[in-house]
Fold this protein.
Amino acid sequence: DGGITQSPKYLFRKEGQNVTLSCEQNLNHDAMYWYRQDPGQGLRLIYYSQIVNDFQKGDIAEGYSVSREKKESFPLTVTSAQKNPTAFYLCASSMGETMQFFGPGTRLTVL
Amino acid sequence: EDKVVQSPLSLVVHEGDTVTLNCSYEVTNFRSLLWYKQEKKAPTFLFMLTSSGIEKKSGRLSSILDKKELFSILNITATQTGDSAVYLCAVLIYNQGGKLIFGQGTELSVKP
């Protein structure tokens, strides 16, 4: 089955902790993206990567970090520097500049 | 600053009604406009519009783009309760690695 998987589905974090969200795709897509969605709002771009070992900041990159060591994988780390991390995080991928396909999302809650 | 605005933000209709969702944009380097449907989790792709005036259809859903007036509409005819979702409009920016700029979304609720 081709698609995008994200794990975990739900994640709880204490203040001051770093957490890493997983995103894997087997669509052979070159580009991958991380978005954040807050209640009643659209998606905001955190980071994106067009090729392995290269990535760019999106509109709200502060407090987040990423890596792209493999084409299939684009993990996102939410650091303690992120002031308000409670949100729904969506990973997406695409073959170049075209429609993006989304994973099921991770809901992060800071306790 | 690139901007995508959707209206209305929320809408309640009854089964069988026809609805029109609006999306306007102000962006540099426009490439395409996309519509997604989001039901509690992952947005699912509906349409991608690149050319002005050409309607795209899929069952009861249709969409059209006006590049002169910088807007798009998404029509849903004979609505069903399964159409209840958030509908997201996004603009694909040319030559920026596939970057999408999203609107706030329109929350549609279809009552039986």
Notes: Chain B has a mean pLDDT of 95.
